[in-house]
Design goal:
The protein is of the alpha+beta class and 417 residues long. It is built from 16 helices and 13 strands. It is 53% helix and 19% strand. The chain starts with a helix and ends with a helix.
């Protein structure tokens, strides 16, 4: 009985091929949009998450309690070595990266054909061993380009403003943590387009010990970034770190608490999934409802004869429902195949948002982070499941009215129609 119903349903869909093809095309386009756009959003989400929890913010941030408001050079974390050892002793901690930040003036430190104009800059003192690992600020540099030995790395934008190149000297003038003036010459070992906006625009990156010596900050740092095993457990890790006695008066924040604006952007992904499911729902409803309503009225005579021959109304209802479900599933399969292929191809090539929008460059800066315009979509099977469930539900709901009409036909009257 079920196989007979399925064969009849499949045959009926072929009666008006143009109408069936249009309905299938609408559903397939909706499913393709769902899979492709949500795949793109998933790739964007992963890129944003990697950037946010990466070299600038980490999973947990530690600062002096007043640092986030004032960012003054004398608002530092003391007893750095001991504090670091205690943090590293926590099993869930993968890496600890202390940093020093200090505003300075910088200029060319040797004679040049052009005048040496001083520019505002920022000393960024880093643990070179940690930051040269994968996803660190310095991970794209060769060993001879890393800061150290009175050599520094300069952000690309700052280097262009100063007119300095690799191998030249740069003069740095500022104030140490005790408010005494300091100045010195350093050699530019590399010019980088930093992963963080502060490095790219203002950064003079030094080894942590050299920055501490220059700024009179022995065993001190302005910030400690902690990377854990799982960014989703950052809240629990922050609580464990905050319990360390030496950090009782400092600010310890998980990444979600440190950047609520960025977190709200990430949380929009769930809404985007629902939006495109709704689009698919509407496309499927319009296509299936129109097709099944027209098919039902065109077959009033045939349906009436089936009822006259003893077919029960529920058999008619089942026939119409099966037709609508088959119609929807065909569209879903076609859209899923095309959407999946598109996502898998662009996952290799990437999608350049900047080029599509006519925007120059490959990165945008927001809240001190550099986000790439090139997005690599990510295939997620659940997006196909979303479409499958949405279309199946829509097919049933859209077919209920024509199915009810067909089941209530009077056999004698329908046969004469």
């Amino acid at each position: 009985m079920r196989s007979t119903t399925l064969r009849i349903a499949w045959r009926n869909l072929g009666r008006n091929r143009r109408r069936t093809i249009l309905a299938v095309a609408a559903i397939a386009l909706g499913q393709l949009t769902l899979v492709a756009v949500n795949g793109l959003m998933a790739g964007m989400y992963e890129e944003m998450l990697r950037t946010i929890t990466g070299p600038l913010m980490g999973h947990v941030q530690i600062h002096h309690k007043d640092w986030r408001e004032e960012q003054a050079i004398d608002l530092y974390i003391d007893h750095l070595d001991e504090t670091r050892r205690r943090i590293e002793a926590i099993p869930a901690v993968k890496s600890v990266s202390p940093r020093i930040y200090a505003p300075v003036l910088a200029a060319q430190g040797e004679k040049s054909d052009e005048p040496a104009n001083a520019e505002a800059a920022m000393i960024v003192g880093l643990d070179v061993a940690v930051e040269s690992r994968r996803d660190g600020i310095l991970d794209n540099l060769d060993a001879d380009e890393l800061p150290g030995g009175r050599g520094v790395v300069v952000g690309k934008v700052l280097a262009n403003r100063l007119g300095v190149r690799v191998g030249q000297q740069i003069a740095v003038i500022g104030q140490d943590a005790d408010e005494f003036p300091v100045s010195d010459l350093f050699v530019v070992k590399a010019v980088v387009a930093g992963k963080t906006d502060i490095v790219n625009r203002l950064g003079i990156v030094m080894a942590l010990d050299e920055a501490g010596q220059f700024l009179a900050m022995p065993d001190q740092a302005h910030e400690i970034l902690v990377q854990g095993d799982d960014y989703r457990e950052a809240g629990a890790l922050a609580e464990e770190i905050a319990a360390i006695p030496g950090l009782a008066d400092d600010s310890v924040l998980a990444w979600r608490d440190a950047a609520p604006e960025l977190v709200s952007m990430l949380d929009m992904k769930d809404w985007s999934d629902l939006i495109f499911v709704a689009i698919l729902f509407v496309a499927a409803a319009a296509g299936i409802a129109n097709t099944m309503m027209m098919a039902t009225f065109e077959r009033r005579r045939e349906l009436g004869m089936l009822l006259a021959l003893g077919a029960r109304p529920r058999r008619i209802v089942r026939l119409v429902l099966v037709e609508s479900i088959v119609l929807g599933l065909v569209g879903v399969v076609i859209g899923s195949v095309l959407g999946s292929a598109l996502v898998l191809v662009t996952a290799q090539t990437g999608v350049d948002y900047g080029a599509l929008g006519g925007i120059g460059g490959q990165e945008m800066a927001f809240r001190g982070l550099n986000f790439s315009y090139i997005i690599y979509p990510r295939f997620e099977f659940r997006h196909i499941v979303y479409g499958l469930v949405a279309v199946t539900m829509t097919a049933v709901l859209a077919a209920l009215w024509p199915a009810t009409i067909a089941a209530r036909l009077e056999p004698a009257q329908a046969a004469r129609t």
